[in-house]
Amino acid sequence: MPTVIPIDDPQDPRIAGYRDVRERDLVGREGCFIAEGEVVLRLLLRSPRHAAVSVLLAEKRVAGLLPLLDGLPDGVPVYSAAQAVLDAIAGFPLHRGILALGRRAPLPAPDELLAGLGEQALVAVLCGIGNHDNLGGIFRNCAAFGADAVLLDPTCCDPLYRKAIRVSVGAALTVPYARVDGDVVDLLTRHGFTALALSPSGATTLADLARPARAAVLLGSEGPGLPAGVLARTHTVRIPMAGGFDSLNVATTSGIVLHHLACVAGRG
Question: What is the model's pLDDT at position 73?
């Protein structure tokens, strides 16, 4: 069982990584990230890729978390503070009372990630997803419906931003992902994936879509959607909607499509 170290000064240098959480999130954390809440902490401690650096708890949460803390690796300090001190450290009221500082694992190369997937594989490919709520929601859906990996273009926001991790309910820590700088359609083709691009003007309705053995679901930003050059080189898919309405939230879209493909695979 780790020793719990009390903190009574918000300026204590030992908890510098937790100070002014929101402001630090915006400028980056030099290879680290903040995990918030009990569910996310559990997933961080089970993660085969990311490592916990330290844990900071409200005093009232310590007793209830002792069984979980017992699984911490040796050398990971656990700090606790009164609620007022904890709020002063974070820079805002921290109602959950649970924070952890994690260290990012190196990202795999996209070719390496795709080559390591099985013959029946499902990936999500995200282009221009700049909203952390949407990104977190997509990762949550990927975990829920068994997607094997996520590919992000250079304009997507950070999956390990605190809010994205929280919205994903920790799935951003468990679903493998990689950044793609080059031609994503060419990358998918090289690895035998059928690229399924979501568009209101797609050629195939989702209900008629059969599950390819290796399927890649391409999602673009809300509004502009996927680039025309990508749509021209992929199999386009649409979700029929009520007359006069032609768009869904991108995270919602991902859930509908991934659920369909998971069900089609299950029937196969």
Answer: 86
Q: Token pair of 251, please?
A: 């995270």
d(CA 181, CA 41): 31
34: left (phi over 0), alpha (psi -120 to 50) or beta: beta
What CATH code is assigned to 110-267?
3.40.1280.10
CA-CA distance, 165 to 42, in Å (whole number)? 13
Look at the domain 4-103 and name its fold: 60s Ribosomal Protein L30; Chain: A; (3.30.1330)
- What's the pLDDT tens digit per position in 31-40? 899 999 999 9
pLDDT score, position 268: 46
197-225: average pLDDT = 94
Beta bridge partners of 178: 151
Cβ neighbours of 3 (radius 10 Å): 6
Query: Residue 30 has what pLDDT?
Result: 80
Residue 198 host element (H or E)? strand 194-198
What are the tokens at 174?
A: 């468990």
Tell me: pLDDT of 199 over 60. Answer: yes
**pLDDT tier at 265, thresholds 50, 70, 90:** low
Mean pLDDT of 102-115: 96
C-alpha span between 12 and 95 (Å, rounded): 21
CA–CA gap between residue 266 and residue 244 (Å, rounded): 33
Q: Distance (Å, rounded) from C-alpha 226 to C-alpha 51?
A: 34
